[in-house]
Amino acid sequence: MFENNRYMTRGFQQEIPLELQLTIFQLIDELNTKGNMDYLQVFQLEAENEFIQRLEHRSESPEYKKKYRFVFTRPVTAMVFVIDDGDHTTAMLAEEY
């Protein structure tokens, strides 16, 4: 899973800074090397303040949850879904689903 062509919705491209987009896909790639993954990966992004980004990466089956906190120049608050349908991977804001 998650080793096919990757696409992003307009909202994801416009609302999520490039560095954070790359971080999301890097976290998926790292988890993918460990084995079985759910087709739906969820990322809860929260701006803690003007320089701290919180990110929670989770999935349901197998259950997975990991939290990150790092310094970031443009922290954002959003929920992101990354979905693999077998043919391609799509990253989108939750409200675009």
Please give a structural write-up.
The protein has a single domain, classed as Roll (Nuclear Transport Factor 2, Chain: A). 22% of the residues lie in helices and 42% in strands. The chain contains two helices and six strands, in the order E-H-H-E-E-E-E-E. It starts with a strand and ends with a strand.
Q: What is the CATH topology assignment?
A: Nuclear Transport Factor 2, Chain: A
Q: Note the gap between the termini.
A: 20 Å
Overall pLDDT level: 96
Order of helices and strands: EHHEEEEE
The level of helicity is 10-25%
**Helix count, per DSSP?**
2
Strand order, main sheet: write it out.
Answer: 1-6-5-2-3-4
Taken from the alpha-carbon principal axes, the silhouette is globular
The CATH homology group name: enterococcus faecalis protein
Biggest pleated-sheet summary: 6 strands, mixed
User: In total, how many beta strands?
Assistant: 6
Structural category? alpha+beta
Kindly provide the name of the CATH class. Answer: Alpha Beta
Number of domains: 1
| Unreliable stretches | none
CATH architectural group = Roll
